[in-house]
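**User:**
Everyone, produce one record:

**Assistant:**
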Amino acid sequence: VQLQASGGGSVQPGGSLRLSCEASGVTLDDHPIGWFRQVPGKQRKAVSCIGRTGDTRAYSADSVKGRFTISRDNAKNTMSLQMNSLKPEDTAVYYCATVTWFGSNCYVSNYDYLGQGTQVTVSS
């Protein structure tokens, strides 16, 4: 199983980036999915999660609501994170993953898959 994230880079505040995650060895639509981010010295945190197709459950961190949009393309077995109005505090390594729900929150359990990270840097 491999989740390959791409699309990270450096952008100025107010700019946009689109992260993509290509899955192999796992069918993303069999799982809820999500994006997480981590800065050095801090725990990885959930950014945005959605359920399987037909499951309306969704989670977005308060800090990204209205700016970030998660989506899936089942035909391509990929997932994406559209990030708009980026801020310096969005700087982090971003990870894609299959996730588990805990109430209205999402996390990466021992039974889930976590991709390698892609660096996003927001700086003027």
